[in-house]
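Technical annex B. To support the medicinal chemistry partners, we prepared a structural model of the target in complex with adenosine-5'-diphosphate, based solely on the information shown next.
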Amino acid sequence: MKDVANRFAAKVFNLTTMRQRLPKDTYKEMLRCIADGKRLDIAVANIVANAMKDWAIEQGATHFTHWFQPMTGITAEKHDSFISPDGNGGVIMEFSGKELVRGESDASSFPSGGLRSTFEARGYTAWDPTSFAFIKDTVLYIPTAFCSFGGEALDMKTPLLRSMEAINRQISRVLKLFGHENVTPITTVGAEQEYFLVDQGMVDAREDLMLTGRTLLGAKPPKGQELDDHYFGVIKPRVQAFMQELNDELWQLGILAKTEHNEVAPAQHELAPIFTTTNISVDHNQLTMELMRKVAHRHGMVCLLHEKPFNCVNGSGKHNNWSISTSEGVNLLDPGATPFENAQFLLFLCAVIQAVDDYQDLLRISVATAGNDHRLGANEAPPAVISMFLGDELTEVLEAIEHDAPYGGHDKEQLKIGVDVLPRIPRDSTDRNRTSPFAFTGNKFEFRSPGSSQSIAKPNIVINTAVAESLRQFADALEGAEDFTQALHDLIRDTVKAHKRILFNGNGYDNHWPEEAQRRGLMNLRTTPEALAHLLDKKNVALFERHGVFSAAELRSRYEILLQNYVKVIHIEAETMMDMVSRNILPAVSAFSAKLCDNAKVKAEVAGVACGYEKARCREISRHTDTIYAIYSTLGEAMHHADSAEDTLERAMRYKDDVIGAMNALREACDACEAMIPNEQWPYPSYTDILFSVK
Ligand code: ADP
Ligand code: MG
């Protein structure tokens, strides 16, 4: 590919384009509006809208859309053309400032969790000028936040932007204490995205993949990921062609696609971008997922973003790398070279430690989906217990501070915060542990629990708000201190003392860890309903309300939506499974056992042989067939019983226990049959067919 530098962001109305296309004053006004989150004056908005429209039309656009992220976790759009009658039977192309900054939308079919009554079905979208407009196909996309008419958030972006404001406010307070006035803090995120690529034909032949994104059945193939021969292996030509086209599309949209490689499971891959400001990173990750699907389709493949498409190999996650920095590019989670920088680093570090400990439940909730439940704690992804990895060096430093003891046994002096230089913390030794949900990796934290298909807005809303709360408490304590250095020292020591239970450098996949975690009083919220049961806990509502991120009503609506969504996903999976079993699997196993009987009969008559194989297999298959039929017959009843629960949480709990329980048993019997039936008589492509389908 030639000319990458020029193609990069060619389809984005970014600062460079704005500087070229806007009058100087308007451009300055835009900069101010982006920096301060200020609303644009309508006269200025009109000029920007017109310039944007001219630019978009030159690029072939005919429509515009307010692009938003409702609580479905994906994006939504409705296209309007630029045309307007010219009064002479023709049209002119128009786009006003009003249309740019605010849109009205019929919100009645988006989930609101009871926030919006039917007579207030309208919602509105408001431009987020910090995330640039872009062109996809022939449409100008304007990133927006989506609210009810009463101003309640109906989307992911609104609370995300609020959480960014909340943490920025508190970071500024703390930075001021260290003498940094007037610096603009930013939180940065880089999301590593895992995915599977399989042949389109395989998906077309399996209604489970088509309807639910994962295989609901499938016997273990002889070869999975045992040989570790796929991880970082040579990329197959068809996949390479896909990656190349995907990169080009992403780059044109200004998305910093950087690293690509094969992942652990066969047919699994990863893409990592260079990090950027949180809300832009969230938008970019949504676009990345969408384009992965589209580009795969053009190459005759399907991109599976489900957390667990296949039972016997690793599922897919999304590592959310998070840090805080200043607009000057100083990373506040980078240990510094002077005592003062070190003290500041330790304070921010402690803020994160306290946040993760105090809001373990919210972090777990932020990644809780039916799909991700298959992955967390399955020895391929972090456990459901949230803990934090800091690495040995940093842990030793904190222990020394906690006990007012000399650090590392060397020399005499104990570490005096704000006076002494921290020992050098070698960066690479901090990134060895891949089993921790929340790992410090040298100058950022890597939250490894998010599922591959989810929006990263949720985890970042929680991280931002929880850390904002620690920083608020720290700033309150330090702002009035007489002896700042002493107060800082005490605060760091006390925080380590109070929250060290969350620090765990060991193997998170170890079976003993959940027991140890329980002894430490850490939470182990194994499934989505168990996690969501804590969303409305008093301390959580108080946190979000205090920082203006969610009102109690908004949080309650999310609670309802998340539970309902969990129930719906499992309901669809169970229905799909029943359909597959009823129409294809039972007839296939029945036909095969009948065939075995016919064969046995003929063999016995003609040759007088015992027919041990035919008889034994037939009995075995019949046993499984009876099990399949029995479970199949009760699964509908289990769903009916679950659906009859008035309370949404109770309904979700019944789905988790009864419906999933029955589905697991049903699957086991089906998979046992698959292993006994010839390929061509089994109604679905096998795991081997699917996982090794792309050459
Ligand atoms: P690995 O995790 O494989 O060691 P890297 O450390 O290079 O890889 O980075 C992984 C991801 O972390 C990348 O997406 C990168 O952009 C992101 N990242 C790096 N620094 C930061 C930061 N300061 N803030 C947010 N994300 C970051
Ligand atoms: Mg990583």
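Notes passed to the chemistry partners:
The CA atoms of residues 209 and 433 lie 33 Å apart.
The chain has a mean pLDDT of 92.
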